Automatic annotation (TrEMBL):
Its EC number is 5.4.2.6. Pfam families: Hydrolase. SUPFAM superfamilies: HAD-like. This is Beta-phosphoglucomutase. It catalyses: beta-D-glucose 1-phosphate = beta-D-glucose 6-phosphate. It comes from the Bacteria.
Length: 253
């Protein structure tokens, strides 16, 4: 399917489902840096046992194993890729314990420290699209793997723009598998009173694009913030943009 981004018939759809980090707000970068800080300290720590490949963690590792997934899935999938065996631990593990949950909690502390220090400013092009869709009266949702989605939306001043927020915490509560499984997007469509065949998904991560494609959504729009347009297309995006302003009719680009 070839789609002209500026000529999208938004009104033909019932709802629009936005990933958050990297789509609405530039917080994918904050997640990326927090992961890199945590994994590199872990990989360089001689006291850690569990074998595996301890070479430094790179952005390629992020895009291949971590991007867009719920926090502890990201930890597990990266460790598995490196052949490193760590105990699972539990949600209450402190951030200095060498378990899957301890490492995830350490990354979360790093993420929240940056959020508190720097705040969040949404991408201007994304706010333009949100304004346009509000003018059209389309119901909107955020579907994010992040348990921090509500605080990021609050910090960006956008909490009132979305009818529902399916965050990592909501998914865990409802027992929904995270991206790349389609369940969180399907749940958001249901909450907005529609079905995947009538809803649009916007995603910057391969795992999220896969979720939209395997869920049978009418339109899956990839947002290239570093994953690569070809990679997003291969994962199932119907079209790929670099900025959400490209999706607003009449916006100068
Ligand atoms: O904030 P949390 O709960 O750790 O969420 C983790 C993930 O949240 C996603 O929204 C990001 O795109 C991921 O790359 C990130 O790792």
């Amino acid at each position: 399917m070839t789609v002209d981004p500026a000529a999208l018939a938004w009104a033909d759809h019932d709802a629009v489902l936005f990933d958050l980090d990297g789509v609405v707000t530039p917080t994918a970068e904050v997640h990326m840096r927090a992961w890199a800080e945590m994994f590199n300290a872990f990989l360089a720590d001689d006291t850690v046992t569990g074998g595996g490949d301890r070479s430094p963690y790179t952005d390629d590792d992020y895009f291949a194993h971590v991007d867009g997934k719920p926090r502890f899935d990201g930890v597990r999938d990266f460790l598995r890729a490196r052949g490193i065996d760590l105990p699972e631990g539990g949600p209450e593990d402190s951030a200095d314990v060498q378990t899957v949950h301890g490492l995830g909690n350490r990354k979360n502390d790093a993420f929240n420290a940056v959020l508190e220090r720097d705040g969040v400013t949404a991408y201007p092009g994304s706010v333009l699209l949100l304004d346009h869709l509000r003018d059209l009266g389309l119901p909107l949702a955020v579907v994010s793997s992040s348990a921090n989605a509500p605080s990021v939306l609050e910090a960006a001043g956008l909490a009132d723009r979305f009818e529902t927020v399916v965050s990592g915490a909501v998914a865990a509560e409802l027992g929904l598998p995270g991206k790349p499984a389609p369940d969180t997007f399907v749940h958001a469509a249901t909450v907005l009173g529609t079905t995947p065949e009538r809803a649009v998904v916007l995603e910057d991560a391969v795992s999220g694009v896969r979720a939209g494609a395997s869920g049978g959504f009418a339109l899956v729009i990839g947002v290239d913030r570093g994953a690569g347009a070809a990679v997003l297309t291969d994962a199932g995006a119907h079209l790929v943009v670099a900025d959400l302003a490209e999706l607003v009719p009449g916006e100068d680009r």
